[in-house]
Amino acid sequence: MLSFILRRILIAIPTILLISVFVFSLQKLLPGDPVLAMAGEERDPEVIAFLREKYRLNDPIPVQYAHWVGNAVRGDLGMSLRTNQPVLELIGEKLPVTIQLATMAMIFAMGIGIPAGILSAVRKGTVTDYVANVVALSGLSIPNFWLGIMLILLVSVKWQLLPASGYVPFADDPWRSVQVMLMPAFVLGTALAATLMRHTRSAMLTVLTSDYVRTARAKGLSERRVILKHAFRNALTPIVTLSALLFGELIAGAVLTEQIFTIPGFGKLVVDAVFNRDYAVVQGIVLVTAVGFIVMNLLADVAYVLLNPRLRSQT
Amino acid sequence: MSRAATPVTADAISARDPVLDRKPESRVWKKFRSHRSAMLGGVLVAFFVGMAILAPVLPIPDPAATDWGAVRQAPSAAHWLGTDEIGRDVLSRMIWGAQASLLAGVVSVLIAVALGVPFGIVAGYFGGWTDAVISRCTEALLAAPFLILAIALAAFLGPSLTNAMIAIGISATPLFIRLTRGQVLSVAAEDYVDGARAIGLPTRKILTRYILPNILPPVLVQATLTIATAIIAEASLSFLGLGQQPPAPSWGSMLNTAKNFLNQAPWMALWPGVAIFLVVLGFNLLGDGLRDALDPREQ
């Protein structure tokens, strides 16, 4: 197992290096000279020369890249132009907020998507199956920022049941924190629920026609036991791995959800950085998200092997 | 001799196996036509395409014309879907907004296909180092979430509809590289491709005559489904202020303004969202239907 994990880490290294090349070259896409922008209106030649030296802009591009990637490996992703804080520190501050939102969204997604997928597969071809599929497809087609706006309109403005925006740290007031996050988490979880439902349905349909399920039925086990104990447990493997792979969608969805509900998380940091032209932060976010996605992929692979006894014995 | 041979009569023709005799295209079309949800998707897409094309000739007010005497008016006979915060007609802006959304969806997918398919073909057909380099780059780009990548690119390129389309197109490219590469790997192993190589056809001809036509159906399905994703991505970028710039109408930017007036003018937020939902649903249904119709296992 350890050698399998090490092998996967080794495979991930060139991918991470390529991502770093891409993120670094994003800066080179910028029109104009960034030093001129930093030097202010006076554009003092001495200041310009100092800044060029400071940011090593006189070096050839491969040397600049090596320097940048060397710093990134040591956890130095540069400084935010707006807050003058290290980028990694800024990301570290905002990440727990998004992790709370993402966790709650995932609970919603699994709570809705998995039972709906099981029900849809068990009742294949019936009205339940049809309705579940229509709802899932609608969930995939609704832009989550619009769903958020509509929920604010109904739940907060009309019925005044939940707050429309804001954030309370979980450590300060757990109940209030969950209450404030309920609506954004539901919005973020909807599209994921639809994806999970479709995959659960497909995995269950495959498993339900297998020999061991037929045997379990032949043994006279109750249908509930056959579905939950025999079929679902075996269908769980692809579902668990898919859940890990939904990380990317969660982070991307969080950008818009946090914007609508004014949640000071990772997603809002991206948008604020974009509008403040805080490019070091944008670069840092893309790099951290991509590395996070690779780590989640790795965990998904490990989970897949751990959940599948046949693969476990091969590694 | 000729009398001994079975004459080809009308009865004999009708007695032939209808499934075997039917051309593949007509089989696909028949399957597609019988797919009710795909037809619904087609109707939805056709409706919005028609709306976008006919926008200049429809008897609707100028989408940029402001009317300070009709600010945030509820739906009425004069303004069917109401007016916005500076008195512009919501219906007119919604109809014109269809142009931006559909254009962004189609153009960004065309960019992704134009870049992704050639790279995928090269990676899949030539293999070796070329494949290794292209595949690693694809994996690296796939690691960054689609929207984050599009936001980052749009931010660096500058906010505009054209840059949003480029950003979305580039972000969707790895998807097409991976799909095409996989398809080429499977098609290149077929006997007819071996045969083409054996008779000494040049690589360019093998690629254009044998490989490309056989990998197109899954690319077409993926393109249809990606248009749906691209429309949501354009609306998201415009919502964030990185896509279509005011005063030009776009569903995403309409929603961005509407969220500030939820209490006073809820209709401003309702219709652009309904439009996005319906057109995306249309492309999703169409894509699902195409996939079923083009899948030989479903015949």
Q: Gist?
A:
The complex is a heterodimer of chains A (315) and B (299). With 315 residues, chain A is an all-alpha fold.
Helix-strand blueprint:
The complex is a heterodimer of chains A (315) and B (299).
Chain A: H1 2-28, H2 34-38, H3 45-54, H4 61-73, H5 87-122, H6 127-141, H7 144-158, H8 174-208, H9 211-218, H10 223-245, H11 247-260, H12 266-275, H13 279-307, H14 309-314
Chain B: H1 10-15, H2 18-21, H3 24-34, H4 36-54, H5 90-126, H6 128-143, H7 146-157, H8 161-188, H9 191-198, H10 203-240, H11 251-258, H12 267-294
Helix pairs in contact in B: 3-12, 4-5, 4-12, 5-6, 5-8, 5-10, 5-12, 6-8, 7-8, 8-10, 9-10, 10-11, 10-12, 11-12
List SSEs of chain B in N-to-C order. HHHHHHHHHHHH
The chain pair with the largest interface is: A-B, 51 and 45 residues
Mean pLDDT of chain B: 87
As a percent range, the share of helical residues of chain B equals over 70%
Radius of gyration of chain B: 24 Å
Number of continuous helical runs of chain B: 12
Which sequence of SSEs, written as H and E, runs from N to C of chain A?
A: HHHHHHHHHHHHHH
General form of chain B: elongated
**CATH superfamily (homologous) name of chain B:** MetI-like
CATH superfamily of the largest domain in chain A: MetI-like
Determine the structural class of chain B based on helices, strands and strand pairing.
Answer: mainly alpha
Terminal CA distance of chain B reads 39 Å
**Quaternary structure state of the chains depicted:** heterodimer
The coarse overall form of chain A would be: globular
Named CATH architecture of the largest domain in chain A: Orthogonal Bundle
CATH architecture of chain B: Orthogonal Bundle
Strand-residue proportion of chain B? under 5%
